[in-house]
């Protein structure tokens, strides 16, 4: 039976992978923040330290919810308005197998800041959290939906909590929960929604008839039970998945950065190969030789681009790319072969008929050769872009990498498979727009 990969082994493999990145001084500066975040995540994986962040609009009771979970007042609350101005954490004293420490994080309200800053906050919270509790106090708003979508795009598990349920009766709570579910985006339909009352208050009257609001015991049993069950069953797995996703995201940023910086050099390299291929087509009348030379030049171009970017393709990806370049070297796939064949036949007929026409038939050969050269130039440019795109998405470093670690986890650990399905998590879904970085 294949041995199940542990979190300690996973962190060791990621550290080894990170060591093999061979970052330049410029890359270390440009990607410093992402590199620090990755280091923190790998260290937390090694020490089995999980972070749970409570996220939401101002005044929905995020701090109260955390205080209720902890069982004492740690995070400051304000009845009139939210008063959390920066993220703060506290270690939750719960014993969970395979976890050493559980840190609860309180975050600022997302509706007190501008939209760009709000998106940045959501991204930052997602980056530094292994599980996120999105807290509501009514039906879900557009601001909350946008934040939820950003969190889900980052591949993080999210629990939805409807707080302050003490202000409604059971029927109203069920109707509200159903309304929230109906308004969720399609990517969030599977999310768990839990009703809670972190700081319920009962209305009373004193002897003079004045209304008083007295604090009652929090009703968070359902939330606490669900949360502890998730941590018990999947806490360690969530740590590993978060580390793997961050490593893959960092590697994607690194590759994009290299492609962007080397774009001009790559364009020059592609132009050089295009010139060589075009010259060969013009000077050589034989189609078979043109095609064979073209494949050889395309292969050499892929190797040169790989060296230029400091990236390598996996064996399967390299074979797939070369096959694609051989048979689909133009935008319409296969058009190059038909054009080259047609132009080559015309050119050969012109050469063969030249003795009978006194050389007059050679006159149209020049435009045909120019057309062939244009096809060669165009297909070489396409080759370069295909190679760069393939390097961006499928390149790797020697040894173990985040994708292979995830594949191993998926194959050997049924809990990982269940976790990925439960939370609809993919290893990496932040494909950036490549148009601006491709040569």
Secondary structure tally: strands: 10
Give the strand line-up of the largest sheet. Answer: 2-3-1-4-5-6
Structural class: alpha/beta
Helix-strand sequence: HHHEHEEHEHEHEEEHHHEHHHHEHH
> What gyration radius follows from the Cα positions, in whole Å?
30 Å
Biggest pleated sheet: 6 strands, mixed
Number of helices: 16
Structure description:
The protein has 16 helices and 10 strands. The chain has helices at 7-19, 25-30, 32-47, 62-70, 115-127, 142-153, 170-183, 221-261, 263-283, 287-309, 315-327, 335-352, 354-357, 365-394, 402-412, 414-423; strands at 49-56, 88-92, 101-106, 131-136, 158-162, 193-195, 201-205, 211-215, 312-313, 395-396. The strands form 3 sheets. The chain has a 6-stranded mixed sheet, sandwiched between helices. α6 links the parallel β4 (131-136) and β5. α1 runs parallel beside α8 (221-261) and α3 crosses α8 (221-261). The longest helix is centred in the middle third of the chain and has 41 residues, at 221-261. The chain starts with 6 loop residues before the first helix and ends in a 16-residue tail after the last helix. Residues 328-337, 356-365 and 429-433 have low confidence and may be disordered.
């Amino acid at each position: 039976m294949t041995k199940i990969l542990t979190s300690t082994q996973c962190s060791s493999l990621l550290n080894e992978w990170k060591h093999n990145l061979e970052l330049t001084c410029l890359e270390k500066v440009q990607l410093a923040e992402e590199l620090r975040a990755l280091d923190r995540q790998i260290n937390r994986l090694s020490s089995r330290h999980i972070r749970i962040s409570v996220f939401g609009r101002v005044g929905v009771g995020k701090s109260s919810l955390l205080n209720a979970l902890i069982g004492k007042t740690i995070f400051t609350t304000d009845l009139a308005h939210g008063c959390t101005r920066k993220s703060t954490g506290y270690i939750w004293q719960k014993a969970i197998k395979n976890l050493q420490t559980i840190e609860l994080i309180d975050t600022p309200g997302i509706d007190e800041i501008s939209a760009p800053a709000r998106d940045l906050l959501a991204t930052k919270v997602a980056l530094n959290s292994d599980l996120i509790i999105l807290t509501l106090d009514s039906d879900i708003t557009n601001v909350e939906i946008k934040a939820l979508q950003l969190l889900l795009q980052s591949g993080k598990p999210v629990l939805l909590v409807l707080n302050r349920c003490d202000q409604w009766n059971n029927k109203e709570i069920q109707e509200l929960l159903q309304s929230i579910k109906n308004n969720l985006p399609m990517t969030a339909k599977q999310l768990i929604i839990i009703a809670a009352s972190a700081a319920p208050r009962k209305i009373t009257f004193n002897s003079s008839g004045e209304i008083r609001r007295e604090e009652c015991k929090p009703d968070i049993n359902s939330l606490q039970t669900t949360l502890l069950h998730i941590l018990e069953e999947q806490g360690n797995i969530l740590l590993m998945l978060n580390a793997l996703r961050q490593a893959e995201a960092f590697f994607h940023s690194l590759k994009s950065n290299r492609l962007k910086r080397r774009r001009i050099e790559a364009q020059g390299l592609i132009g050089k190969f295009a010139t060589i291929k075009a010259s060969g087509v013009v000077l050589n009348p034989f189609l078979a030789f043109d095609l064979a030379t073209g494949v050889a030049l395309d292969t050499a171009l892929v190797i040169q681009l790989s060296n230029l970017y400091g990236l390598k393709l996996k064996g399967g990806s390299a074979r797939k790319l070369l096959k694609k370049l051989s048979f689909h070297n133009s935008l319409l796939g296969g058009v190059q072969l038909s054009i080259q064949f047609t132009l080559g036949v015309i050119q050969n007929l012109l050469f063969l008929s030249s003795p009978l026409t006194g050389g007059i038939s050679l006159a149209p050969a020049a435009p045909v050769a120019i057309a062939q050269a244009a096809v060669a130039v165009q297909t070489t440019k396409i080759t370069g872009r295909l190679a760069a795109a393939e390097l961006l998405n499928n390149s790797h470093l020697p040894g173990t990498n985040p994708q292979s670690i995830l594949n191993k986890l998926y194959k050997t650990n049924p809990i990982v498979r269940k976790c990925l399905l439960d939370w609809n998590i993919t290893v990496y879904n932040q494909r950036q727009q490549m148009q601006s970085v491709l040569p």
